[in-house]
Structures are given as structure tokens and as C-alpha cells.
Amino acid sequence: MRTLAYEGYVIRRENGTYVVGLEIADRYRELVLAFRGPSAVIERLRRAAAETGYSHYLGRFVGGRVAITAMAEGPRTPPLDDLVPGYDEAAHATALGKALLATMSPDQRWRFLKEYGMRAYTSATLTSPEALDSDLAAGERRGMQIEIGQFRQGLACAAVMVVNDRDPDRRVVLACALPPAELMSSAKVVRTRLLATAHHLATVLAE
After folding, report:
1. Where, by residue number, does the polypeptide cross the bilayer (predicted)?
2. Residue 141: which domain range?
């Protein structure tokens, strides 16, 4: 197990148990199936993508990192080669990542940012912990974390919680990616739809 952990095939948790790692390129399909949950999860994501036209994503902590675990593409969202199941970068620059980072204590979050950094993906990316903390607080008041052009120029993202468990590995968030103008003009509608989908997903994941 030590060798598997060193190679990235498994990840050792603090309680001594192990979860599947993100480095198993030749087991990609099995990895995605394991993390996305029941088939009803992807069915619900596809329905949300079809109804809104926006690509939808599920994310969670995997081995202490923020990772995308399931997705469904929508025709009104520009193609994003990076944002696929298994992607575990840019937590500070995506709404999905922000929603999970917001569940951490300030000390936990600062340690996370110190370890993984705050790369500037665009000129709009927040690159200081203080700026991110302020942004997360605004998202908490809004009831939805957002980013506009922080990960990709010409793209916006919004995210809400699905499951906020005491165990970080059980926390799940839902996000959608859309054109910035649509988020700015219809933020309340986007939030309402995300929350409705999140409610359905929470029910599925609890079964």
C-alpha cells in the first residue's frame, strides 16, 4: 500500500484508510464511475444541462484536493478541455472550488492555498488569500459562489452546496459554467435552478 500511495494509485486518509488516487490514467473510466456515485447522478446532471444549456459539474475533496467527479456538457457553454472528471487544479479560480474552500476554516483554507498555490489563470484571477476570503464571504451572503473570467476569459461559473458533511471527503458541490453576460443578468434564476438540482442530487446521494 505504501508503494501504491507513493505512485499515486491510492491516497492515504488521516484515519489510516485509503481512497482511489487520481493518477490511474489507465483506470479512468472506473475512477469516474466510482466518484460520481449512482447512475441517477449523471442522469440528473444531463437533465440540468439539457434544460439550461449550461455544462454542469459535481466536485468534492479527493485526498485533500478539490476535484471534479462528474459532468454533463451543455450546448451554451464553450468547450472546456480542462474541466473533466479528475481535474484537480484551480480551486481558487473556479466557483466549484470556491464552494468547497468556503467549507474550510480560515486556517485550513490558508494551509490549502499555501500548499497548492494561487496561480493566475487570467488577469482576473484572485491571487491572494485575503482577496479570496472576501470573495468567499460575498458568495456566502449571495447563497452561491461565482467567478467571472477568473479561470477562463469569456466564461463564468456558479456553484452551490449539495452535501455539506462534517467529513470533508463527503462534501459535494454542484456548479455550472455559462457566458458571463447570462450570469450577470440572471444570477437569481441560475441560483434557483442550481439549488433545485442540488436538492435532487442530495436525495439521490442519500439513498
Report:
1. none
2. 27-206
